[in-house]
Amino acid sequence: xxxxxxxxxxxxxxxxxxxxxxxxxxxxxxxxxxxxxxxxxxxxxxxxxxxxxxxxxxxxxxxxxxxxxxxxxxxxxxxxxxxxxxxxxxxxxxxxxxxxxxxxxxxxxxxxxxxxxxxxxxxxxxxxxxxxxxxxxxxxxxxxxxxxxxxxxxxxxxxxxxxxxxxxxxxxxxxxxxxxxxxxxxxxxxxxxxxxxxxxxxxxxxxxxxxxxxxxxxxxxxxxxxxxxxxxxxxxxxxxxxxxxxxxxxxxxxxxxxxxxxxxxxxxxxxxxxxxxxxxxxxxxxxxxxxxxxxxxxxxxxxxxxxxxxxxxxxxxxxxxxxxxxxxxxxxxxxxxxxxxxxxxxxxxxxxxxxxxxxxxxxxxxxxxxxxxxxxxxxxxxxxxxxxxxxxxxxxxxxxxxxxxxxxxxxxxxxxxxxxxxxxxxxxxxxxxxxxxxxxxxxxxxxxxxxxxxxxxxxxxxxxxxxxxxxxxxxxxxxxxxxxxxxxxxxxxx
Length: 494
Ligand SMILES: [Zn+2]
What we know:
CATH class of the largest domain: Alpha Beta
Structural class: alpha/beta
Bound molecules: zinc ion
Number of domains: 3
């Protein structure tokens, strides 16, 4: 593995622990995906960009990673008991699966714009109904589930008494949970205890998405799908389970209870949670207008921003906070990130043009120290803000070499080659930041300029001064200056 030992902050133990995968060289990672009943909001994007960076770093270290991120397309209920997808279908006058497709497409488009890698498997809950029925049966057989009027509930009291782990992740005790369950409130009276939660729900006659089961025509509980799909694709026990920290309770707590209830095995060794995205110091909320969509952020079509920001500038902004810290989105912070990202991109461009004669090596230690430190920072629970500060230090050096305040010839050839390889690789592969200035037409114009300069050079070699001057004057008219030097010609805008 590249770098040193990796340490992660484990939400389950509340400690930073050395990461040791179950099978050497392999990592199984499950991240709770979106419920696709409306446009993805920016807080979700932060979570998925965070786990994308974790996924990228695990790959960069050399692990073979199976990254499973589900799509919730059934069973995630609103407080009034209506299925979120069904509500979307009712409001938009669509088939439930049209709602799922529409918002899955939108979600994927935004994920592409943020340059996140696709997960290895993206299972949907409705594609795993038989497996969910099977797990409900296992939970009943093991004595942790009971049926009432066609619905099946998880017996939290019995589970807590026997297994002593309920509440371990969220740090809550069962008495605190009495009034906090997000379950279907209409069915509260059916439960033995208010903290019990539904793992199978009997559907009302007008319910849109329902399946046959041994207990009723109904649908699975939201928490159950993640237990089932993680077990199916990663095994009973896997390495990393992730999600936003708003999912710790009840969703993840109940997942653990279900897995232990069904298989007598807790699902994941390490639980990683991303933190909240705030805007102007407050929780984002549609009802008081303190919200912005990814699209509004890109176009600038919102009163909360002074202009539009490119997706990579926004991604850079996200990575400037640690994934487990709250992040405060403000226009000033975005402006600063945009500027910082531009500086790094310009640094990369200058780096590509630097050459050394390798006569000295007094600069090597500083460069290598920063390159190594970037990986050390990532090995310290994926500390992207610290790694980015090393990048800024490298860019400062690169600028000094260009301006001559530091001597580029004091960098050995090997170290310059290493810097040229590792710095852009880290920015693109680990941080997932594409160089926006090199995209599209700019590549073509750079190529065209090189061609023109070569034609002019060959005219000069033939002493065809008319042609060479004509090219220079025509470029001048386009505000492009050509400078002739010993090693050929260079160009720049006036
Ligand atoms: Zn989940």
